[in-house]
Design goal:
binds calcium ion; mainly beta; seven-stranded mixed sheet; 2 domains; 39% strand; 405 residues; Immunoglobulin-like
Length: 405
């Protein structure tokens, strides 16, 4: 006997009501913002001009309901890095009171905020004849070690004393092999944006501009500074590098510039973060002033004291891998121009970063892009990337435009 049509409709209605109830109960809490597709546009960010200044302590403030959401795809092409897979980063921008505010939001299920942390373990030496025993303390850093970079240069063959390898034109010679600290600090998440400042070629005519395909991770090639990231278009790019464990706790993104020389940070009298690893003795350099009672993820310089091996740290104690400077940065420190604030939320089995960056339209520094000179309707070419648990595992976007009001 077949079921009557009205019974089938009734069952379908119940299923729909149940499904709707489940969606309502799961869909309204945090982090939930960027599924609002009717307010988004793909592959482009349109800057919103506001009289109200976005607060730098709340990435969820209502003001962010106003600008269009630029839905930017990262990881769709290995040439732009796809190690994190393909995902969407929701990017928005506001100009208010001579500052640019940039908001990025992306899913990341792990709240990684302990870059290169140092872990303590205790081994007790047991001796059957002695009741008392010695305790061996071991400290280990969770890092990828230094690697060797080959520094090369291109020279005219005629300038070489022995031209047996080269009869005419130019050849590449190895100048040096150097130890380069890996930038792959495990244990933190990243958001980076690379701005075309206008002197690194015209993208539409095939120039590099801010195209990461040619300037990032050039396998087998190194810049004069031994870096794998450097420009090849004759100029430079302005780069903001937000890192959850190193720059976010001091409310900054690292302000950098990349040139043909390599990947460099803007002027500073002191870096934002110093390593807390004494590689000679293989122990931390500093500890928190409250010693082993401290269990925070961040060690600030103004709360740090010199590490003391005599202090009895428990097994599996975690020491922060970096010391962060809140007052870093001294007069005119161009490295500290980009302010940052973030939240990370976990809800319905989805974790999500929401990061707001902010910088004056003009910093007066030649390595920084000057937004104040951009005419209404003009745009700037940028590339972004996000990384999870160390910057090796990242996905980058193709170049896209940020359109100014
Ligand atoms: Ca993560
Ligand atoms: Ca700067
Ligand atoms: Ca810069």
């Amino acid at each position: 006997m077949s079921m009557k049509k009205e019974h089938i409709f009734a069952i379908q209605a119940v299923i729909l009501i149940l499904a709707a109830a489940i969606m309502v109960s799961f869909g309204c809490s945090d982090p939930g913002r960027y599924d609002e597709t009717t307010t988004s546009i793909a592959g482009r960010v349109v800057v919103y001009e506001s009289v109200t200044v976005p607060p730098m302590d709340d990435p969820k403030d209502d003001i962010w309901d106003k600008p269009l959401i630029g839905a930017i795809t990262v990881g769709e092409d290995a040439d732009y890095s796809d190690l994190l897979g393909q995902k969407t980063v929701a990017v928005q921008a506001i100009i208010a009171e001579n500052r640019l505010y940039l908001r990025a939001e992306w899913n990341d299920n792990t709240h990684n905020i302990r870059p290169n942390y140092i872990i303590h373990s205790r081994d007790t030496l047991r001796d059957s004849l002695e009741v008392d025993t010695a305790v061996i303390a071991n400290w280990a850093r969770t890092t990828i070690p230094y690697f060797t970079a080959v520094v090369t240069d291109t020279v005219l063959c005629d300038s070489l004393p022995d031209t047996t390898d080269c009869t005419s034109g130019e050849m590449v010679i190895v100048i040096d092999t150097i130890e380069v600290a890996s930038s792959d600090s495990l244990g933190q998440d990243h958001f980076s944006i690379m701005w075309d400042v206008g002197d690194n070629g015209d993208y539409l005519s095939g120039g590099e501009a801010s195209d990461c395909r040619t300037m990032c991770h050039r396998v087998g090639n190194y810049s004069p500074l031994g870096h794998r990231m450097y420009t090849t278009g004759g100029g430079h790019v302005d780069v903001w590098n937000w890192q959850s464990g190193i720059t976010d706790p001091v409310l900054l993104a690292s302000d950098e510039y990349w040139s043909s020389q390599g990947r460099e940070v803007d002027f500073h009298t002191q870096l934002i973060a110093d390593t807390n690893w004494n590689s000679l003795d293989e122990v931390p350099v500093y500890s928190h002033q409250t010693d082993s009672a401290f269990d925070g993820s961040t060690l600030f310089a103004d709360e740090a004291v010199t590490f003391d091996e005599a202090i009895d740290y428990p097994d599996n104690y975690i020491m922060p891998g970096y010391v962060l400077h809140k007052e870093v940065l001294g007069p005119g420190a161009s490295i500290a121009d980009v302010e940052a604030f973030s939240t990370w939320n976990w809800s319905n089995y989805i974790g999500r970063w929401q990061v707001v960056l902010s910088r004056a339209l003009s910093t007066g520094e030649s390595d920084d892009i000057d937004f104040s000179t951009i005419a209404s309707g003009d745009s700037v070419l940028v590339t972004i990337s996000v990384a999870n648990d160390g910057n090796r595992f990242h996905s980058g976007s193709k170049p896209f435009y940020i359109v100014f009001p």
